[in-house]
Amino acid sequence: MLASRTPSGRLFRRHKLAEHSGNDRGRMTSALAYLIATGRIVHPTVPSLAKLYGHLDIVYVPITDMPPLCSALVWRRSATHPKLREFVQIARATASGSLGDSVTRR
Asked: Which of 44, 46, 77, 96 is the least crowded, having the fewest Cβ atoms under 10 Å away?
């Protein structure tokens, strides 16, 4: 969640990526990178985005005067797919540092 206004009260303009991406997350990331690389938007993000989706025309500048950004996995309570449970177990093990080399990459 991002603020809707600047500290002085000015509204942020927002782009709706879903209109350009057909609600496909891969296309949304590409659309976001395109808008940033072409100078149409700036976008606050997490450091891992630069590692995963680094782009030659994008400069990643740390925001040093705000609290660290926390993130979390979320899903619908009613979701019961076995792959979800497996993913959550791997994510928890990874976060706690207990995986070592025991995970088979898929």
From this structure: 77
Of 57, 10, 66, 64, the closest CA to residue 32 belongs to 57
Whether 103 shows a pLDDT value over 50: the answer reads: no
CA max distance for the chain: 51
DSSP state of 101: T
CB 11 within 8 A of CB 5: yes
Spatial distance between the Cα atoms of 14 and 35, rounded to a whole number of angstroms = 12
**From CA 34, how far away is CA 36, in angstroms rounded?**
5
Q: Considering only CA atoms, which of 52, 51, 14 is closest in space to residue 35?
A: 14
Using one digit for the tens of pLDDT, what is the confidence trace for 77-99?
A: 888 888 998 998 898 888 887 65
